[in-house]
Write a structure and sequence with these properties.
Blueprint (H helix, E strand, L loop, with lengths): L8 H7 L9 H18 L7 E7 L6 E3 L5 E10 L7 E3 L2 H5 L1 E3 L4 E4 L11 E7 L5 H16 L6 E4 L2 E4 L2 E3 L2 E2 L6 H7 L8
Antiparallel strand pairs: 1-7, 2-6, 3-4, 3-7, 5-6, 8-9, 10-11
Helix pairs in contact: 2-4
C-alpha cells in the first residue's frame, strides 16, 4: 500500500520560509524519503488512518502486540489453531467484541490464549492518526537538512567569502539523516516494547 508522505511540499516551503519552494522537483521525493525514515524509526505508518490486514506471529499467551500506536477499530480476525490439523478459526463479530484492546496496540483475549503458530493470526484493523502536525514538522526538518547541502559540502570559500553548511555529523553535511532532535520528536510515536 502506497502511503502519502507525512508532510506536503507546501509545508516544507512554509517551514523553510520559501528557501525551498513547493514546486522544487526535489521536495516531493525528499519528503517521501524523510517520511519513510520516520516511519521506519517508529515501526509503523503513523498517519493517516488506514485499514489494513496484517499477518502476525501467535504469542501462545493471552496478549499479542500489534504494530501500531493508535488502534481505531478491529474489523476481522482469523487464527490458525495449534495442532497437527490446519484448523482455522474466523472470529465472529460477537467474538471480536469480547477482545480487550489498547489504543496503543496491545490485544488481549479475555478467555484462552492465542495460537503459538508463526503467521498464525490475520487481523484487519483501522489505525493511525488523522494528522500528526508534530511529525510533519519533524519530516520537514529532516528534508530541509538534507537539502541544505545536497552535494555534501561542509564548507565553501571563494576569496574572502566563505560559507559553512549545517552538518549532520562531524565533517558531514547533507544526506537524509535522523538527528538526535528528530528521534526525540518522533519517540512518542515509536513502538517500544520489551
Amino acid at each position: 500500500m502506497a502511503l502519502p508522505p507525512l508532510a506536503e511540499p507546501q509545508q516544507l516551503a512554509n517551514y523553510t520560509a520559501g528557501a525551498i519552494t513547493a514546486s522544487d522537483p526535489r521536495a516531493k521525493t525528499l519528503l517521501e524519503a524523510a517520511s519513510e525514515a520516520a516511519r521506519r524509526y517508529c515501526g509503523w505508518h503513523i498517519a493517516p488512518v488506514i485499514t489494513e490486514t496484517l499477518v502476525l506471529d501467535g504469542s501462545g499467551s493471552d496478549i499479542i502486540e500489534l504494530p501500531t500506536m493508535r488502534v481505531k477499530t478491529i474489523d476481522a480476525l482469523t487464527e490458525r489453531l495449534p495442532g497437527p490439523a490446519a484448523r482455522v478459526h474466523e472470529w465472529t463479530p460477537d467474538e471480536l467484541t469480547n477482545l480487550e484492546w489498547s489504543r496503543l496496540g496491545t490485544l488481549r483475549r479475555r478467555h484462552g490464549i492465542w495460537t503459538d503458530r508463526y503467521q498464525g493470526i490475520t487481523i484487519t484493523l483501522s489505525h493511525g492518526y488523522d494528522t500528526a502536525p508534530d511529525v510533519a514538522q519533524t519530516v520537514c526538518q529532516i528534508a530541509a537538512m538534507a537539502l541544505a547541502s545536497p552535494t555534501g559540502a561542509t564548507h565553501e570559500q571563494a576569496g574572502g567569502v566563505s560559507i559553512s553548511y549545517g552538518t549532520t555529523a562531524s565533517g558531514v553535511a547533507g544526506g537524509l539523516t535522523l538527528l538526535d532532535r528528530d528521534r526525540l520528536a518522533l519517540d512518542p510515536y515509536a513502538i517500544r516494547r520489551p
